[in-house]
Structures are given as C-alpha cells and as structure tokens.
C-alpha cells in the first residue's frame, strides 16, 4: 500500500513482567490457583502476541491483586513473553512474535514435529497447562482502531460462551484460520464433542488506553461465566456501562492479497456494513475486489500491514443464530 498512516500513540504502560517468571506450577510465567472446591479450570492468557499489551496488563493485574477463585481453578498465563520483552515504542509492531506467529502453531503436527522456533518451544511448554483447562479466554488486540470483537470460533459452544460473557457487541464465528491453528481452536476447544470451550477477545487497537480496562472487564465477566467467581468478586474490574445487545457475524470469505500492489478503495473500519453486492472495496493489482453479497460486514480490514500473502479483510454476514 502506498498510503501512509501516522503511528498510533502508545497510551498503555509496558511494565517489567519479569517478577512473574518463576510461576507456581513448574512452568515459567504460569500461575494456577485452586479453590479446593469442585469446579472448572478457567484459563486467561495474555501476550499470545508480544505487542498486544492489554492482555498482559490483565494477567498482571490479577496477579498483583492476588485474585483467587471461589470454586474450581484459575490459571493465568503470560504467553509469548520473549516477544513482549523485546517490545520497543520505536518499532511497536515489530514484536508481534520473534520466529513465527504463536497463534498459528497449535496443531498437533507442529507441536509434535521436529521444527524448532521460540514460539513452538513455548507452546510445547504450555501444552500440558492448556490441556488441563476447561474454559479459555485468549486476550488480543488489533492493528486498527476497530470496535472490540469476540471470536467464538467454529463451534456453537463458542457463541454460547460469548453470550454468557455478554460483551462486546460483536461475536465473530468462523471456520478457523488458514495460516495455522489458533490456541482457541486447539484440542477440545475446537472439538464439538468436547465440553471444553474457548473464546478470543480483540479489545481494540493495540496501544489505546481503553483496550486494557475493556479487556479486564471481559476477563471479569468470563470468570463469572466459567463459574469460578461471582459478580461481587469481580465488581472492581467491571466498567460502568450498559452492554449493547450482541450481534453474530458468520465469516464467509477471507480476502488474501495476491500482488504487491493491494489497496483499499476507502479507509474502511472494522464491522462496517457494505450494503450492496458488487461494491468495490479494493484493488489487488489491476483486479477489483468486490463484496459477494448485500449487507456484507468487513472484519478487521488491514489498512496498515497489507502485503502479499496476508489477509486483507474477512467478510461476513449478520445472522440471528449461528449453526456449526
């Protein structure tokens, strides 16, 4: 893309998280707390991508506050900590990962195979911890200043958990990611026959100040939905607002960039609805990219980081009831 964009200001702190290195269960940066009472194991993960600060701040806050579950077990994870430790405000997008995207390595072939990367090594360390979780909230953020969204995956149970949490407004259902399996789709989370269930939050633009309180609010609601906390336990983390009725978007298409000259036809924003089928939304070289149906929803258009082989935007339909 030839369009130049000003970098987003970094409005969130980037604290030294090394004090949490030792963990308390034999894996660095992993803490597990059992209530001693029956219940589910609810797992909150931050920093799957090293520059997605808000999720790390949520885990840090819960650890600082010595938050404990009322029933079941709480598991807190700082994920790709190696990438986060290299974060620099001078090149804030450079530390999404070190060797490869840690949210694309969660297939058994990669985890069990011979390939060696920093992200795979960390995933292999975390695998037994993830295997023990019943509920998972993976905290992320976005390149662009789009509305927050909850990724429910491709199983109906993901939508149901997102509805229990109650925010944000948009629940995105998809068929997985072509570039590799996400943590939220790993193992039982992506198996319709399993009771394990996961959701992924995109809390807004990576560095905007509201991304942290919103992620903390969602984490608090998740703990209640998972049954390990009651609303009174998490009241201090809840934002003062009235949740908007949720909408479901079923992703139908992913537009992969095929040339070195991709550009959008306008500065679209996430969740923007394009009313008419056949509307030109971009150009891939000399080829027009058009909407395939009326009322087409644009999910996370990549205005700043569009290059050949990556996803420019995903397209979806608003649906009343998702069927997996």
Question: What would a concise description of this structure say?
Answer:
With 324 residues, this protein is an alpha/beta fold. The protein is built from seven helices and 14 strands.
Strand count: 14
Per CATH, the superfamily of the largest domain is: Zn peptidases
Class by helix and strand content? alpha/beta
Instruction: Report how far the terminal alpha carbons are from each other.
Output: 36 Å
Please mark out the parts with pLDDT under 50 across 5 or more consecutive residues, or reply none.
Answer: none
Beta-strand portion reads: 25-35%
Tally of individual helices: 7
* CATH C-level of the largest domain: Alpha Beta
Provide the domain count: 2
Shape: globular
Strand adjacency order, main sheet: 1-3-2-4-7-5-6-8-14-13-10
- SSE order: EEHEHHHEEHEEHHEEEEEEE
The CATH architecture of the largest domain: 3-Layer(aba) Sandwich
**Overall mean confidence score, pLDDT:** 95
**What is CATH's topology name of the largest domain?**
Aminopeptidase
Report on the biggest sheet. Answer: 11 strands, mixed
Residues in helices, as a percent range: 10-25%
Cα Rg: 19 Å
